[in-house]
């Protein structure tokens, strides 16, 4: 069992011992630290925080603990109930709230949950603010209010509909055009809140929806990370239904993957590539993705005479670089689309609407669209960590081994070879080392990954 404390929040497995897992005590402790941080940095008499959660089995328990902890600090809560990460991000500024908390462990399996923490802009906290919250939690420097000063709860379950309206109002989204195409789409929402909001969005755009795992009961029917090895059911169903394509989202609906009409993966890396191609064709500009994302976005950006830059992994890092470079589209190669025209956060709803509009403007099937892009192949692997493994020493050794190559060390170690690359980094969300490679063929990407894994294991003595 695991508890991971990071600048972006707290994530852990349910049950077990306090301090080792995400127990009720830990949930209260970190909610207290976040609320205290907000109070310490505001002169307002009464603060407001927006809370929403995905459909995890533990969601209701963690939600009640966090919500009532904030009430005890004298903070008002706007409770969105079942929601999505991007919906909470949209709601915070619309409500003029002072922050937000999303209760979700994103792509992690059902035994995990987490507190994702937002600032008053509905964006993830930066590193400095996250570090302060961890310090407050460690010191348990909390001061709760008296009975006459308790916060109040306001329930608002309309925000997924509001979020859809905000997306449909975007200038580059053309629902009327999409309606003329009479698309048929299969949706796999891994039995979380995407099963509510994605079909609703599609139906408002005139799309026939075939639902697969869209009951928001938190019982994930497969590993919720939207990778090829987990998505056999939807790949099969897209072909059986003769659908135009399939849509897959993770439990909190900030990662988006497509299945082509032939039942093959469009490729989660190519979600951002395709949507960026559309956005750049209408509004030329710059793009950003993280260092573990495909070179294909760079190629597409160059095609449109824009400038591409890569950030450290993590949404907050992508957003900071997007702001610094005035990027008009960006995100992460794991299927995370960030479109600042609406908000600075990964948003599957925005991705779906932009992709549908782009497709409606093309005389191509989804498979043909995918084939039109630069062909790169990735291999995404990981090594489970034990307390005996010194990750920093491994990364130093790998840097030294490949010092003659093009190396970047702002986030782990990325080694750029002439036609391929490898990125090694310790995960922020799981006790693992991630090993991502990319090459012109799948065989080459896998071969590079296996070679690097063997070298790491030799260094670590495992």
Automatic annotation (TrEMBL):
Taxonomy, superkingdom: Bacteria
Keyword match Phosphoprotein: yes
Gene3D superfamilies: Alpha-D-Glucose-1,6-Bisphosphate, subunit A, domain 3, Alpha-D-phosphohexomutase, C-terminal domain
Pfam families from the UniProt entry: PGM_PMM_I, PGM_PMM_II, PGM_PMM_III, PGM_PMM_IV
SUPFAM superfamilies: Phosphoglucomutase, C-terminal domain (SSF55957), Phosphoglucomutase, first 3 domains (SSF53738)
Record keywords: Isomerase, Magnesium, Metal-binding, Phosphoprotein
UniProt domain Alpha-D-phosphohexomutase alpha/beta/alpha: residue ranges: 8-142, 173-263, 270-376
InterPro entries: A-D-PHexomutase_a/b/a-I, A-D-PHexomutase_a/b/a-I/II/III, A-D-PHexomutase_a/b/a-II, A-D-PHexomutase_a/b/a-III, A-D-PHexomutase_C, A-D-PHexomutase_C_sf, A-D-PHexomutase_CS, Alpha-D-phosphohexomutase_SF
Cofactor: Mg(2+)
Protein name, per record: Phosphoglucosamine mutase
Organism: Flavobacterium chungnamense
